[in-house]
Amino acid sequence: MPEGPEIRRAADRIASEIANQPLQEVWFAFSHLKIYEAQLGASQIQQVETRGKGLLMHFDCGLSIYSHNQLYGKWMIRKAYNYPQTKRQLRLALHCDRKSALLYSASDIDVLDAAGIQAHPFLSRIGPDVLSSETTVEQVRERLSCDRFRRRRLTTLLLDQHFLAGLGNYLRSEILFVARVHPSLRPADCTDEQIEKLAEAALALPRQSYETGGITNDIAWAAKLKFQGFARRVYRHWVFARAGQLCWVCATPIVKDAQGGRRYYYCPQCQEE
């Protein structure tokens, strides 16, 4: 599933390529949204924003297109009306004179006005966005320590968009590693130092991932490995998707485990229980 950084980068591309210019056409795959095609197609996108893993395109007619990529959704920016060869199902298309923004495989798409955004069942309930400049380490620390969240296992809590918006599977593993916290623990089990490190990592790693296109490893170390010819999948993360490979810090083999069908990774030496 694309996480907050990937959705924000997709939003940036959409804004860069098709915002603030005349649209040729807006097309929806879903019949209940086709009533909006003509009105949106005659409008312009004024702003593209993300809220956690949700993406909003605001049009000058007062309507907005909301989308959530879910597990398999993918945005593609192509030359106008140039569709890729793919087995994915096209769900939404926005065409300008030079470029098209195409959303494949996602089914959570809606057209909303301002009141609809406020009342939306996902947007109205998400926690602070980890990529927002308004979200602070102090806020995250307070949420980790509050009664609502402190007794929940971290591997579950870090995927809960009501806790923090924008985190997902790879960021969960990376945050726990950088904070040196074992995946079995709850915030209630952690020391004050661990809580502080969790709060810092929960913001620093998503923001680094956004800036670097998905790298959560130490940037200098990743650059060194890249220079030496290693593939991106080798140097991208500290622990995620590195089962059996040696920890970059202590050379202990990385362990893969799962909870609720979702995999996570950790170093049993650096993240002692």
UniProtKB/TrEMBL annotation:
Key words, A-Z: DNA damage, DNA repair, DNA-binding, Endonuclease, Glycosidase, Hydrolase, Lyase, Metal-binding, Multifunctional enzyme, Nuclease, Zinc, Zinc-finger
Segments forming a coiled coil: none
Domain of life: Bacteria
EC number annotated for this UniProt entry: 4.2.99.18
Keyword Metal-binding applies: yes
NCBIfam families: PRK10445.1 (NF007763)
InterPro entries per the UniProt record, alphabetical: EcNei-like_N, FPG_cat, FPG_N, H2TH_FPG, Ribosomal_uS13-like_H2TH, Znf_DNA_glyclase/AP_lyase
One BP term from GO: base-excision repair
Enzyme class: lyase
Protein name: DNA-(apurinic or apyrimidinic site) lyase
Sample GO molecular function, one term: zinc ion binding
Family annotation (PANTHER family): ENDONUCLEASE 8
Keyword GTP-binding: no
Annotated Formamidopyrimidine-DNA glycosylase catalytic domain residues: 2-90
Family, as annotated: Belongs to the FPG family.
A matching Pfam family: H2TH
Domain FPG-type span(s) in chain numbering: 238-272
